[in-house]
Structure prediction request, 227 residues.
Amino acid sequence: MHGERRPRTLSHMPSMPTAATNLMVYDHPLIQHKLTILRDKRTKHEDFRQLLNQIAGLMAFEVSRDLPSRAIEVETPVACTMGTQLATPTTIVPILRAGLAMMDGFLALFPEARVGHVGIYRDEATAKPITYYCKLPPDIAAGTAIIVDPMLATGGSAIHAINLLRAKGCRDIRFVGLVAAPEGIAALHATHPDVPIHVAAIDERLNERFYIVPGLGDAGDRIFGTQ
Prediction:
C-alpha cells in the first residue's frame, strides 16, 4: 500500500497566519480544471451549477475521511465477516442560497446524511450577517455537521452559521467552500480555530464591495441564473 495522500496547499497561494493549521486547499488537477471553468464569466448557469456539485463531490471524499466509525459484523452469502459503519449521524448544512448547489455533491457520496438549512444574508451597508431561516435536525449535536458555502469572503456568514451550531451543542463542525479570501480565513480561524476549513482555492483579497478577487462573481446569481 502506498502512503496516504492528503490535500496539499498550492505553493503560489498567499501566505497564511500560523494559526491556520486547520486549512486544507485541494489542488487536485480535476478540481482545478473544473474551478477554472467556473471562474469563466461565459459559463452558463446550468453548467456552473453542475460543476459546483461535481467539485463538492470530489471534496466530500477527503472531508469525510475521518468521520467516526465502528466495527460491525455482517454475513455475506459465503461467511460472517467484520466490516465498518459510520458511528454517528452526519448533517450537511448548506448556507442558503448558494450552498444548496454543493449539497447534492455530498449526498451523492453518502445519501444517509441529514440536511439542515441556514439562511443568512449580508447587509450590504455593514457586511454583517443576518439570519432569516434556520432549520436543523433536533439531534444535530450527536454527530458531525458539515457547513457548505461556495464563497468564504469576509467569513461573517460562516462564523454566524458556526455560532448557530455551537448553540445547538455541536462539537464536530467542518466548513467546506470553493473559493476563499485570506481575510475570511483569518476571521474564521480567529473566532473558531478548531473548525477545519476545506477549500479549492485561496484568492488574492476582497475588494471594496467585499467580493473575492479574482473570485467568480456572485455565486448565488451564477448558480440560479439571476444575474
Observations:
- The chain has one domain: 23-224.
- The first helix runs from residue 29 to 39.
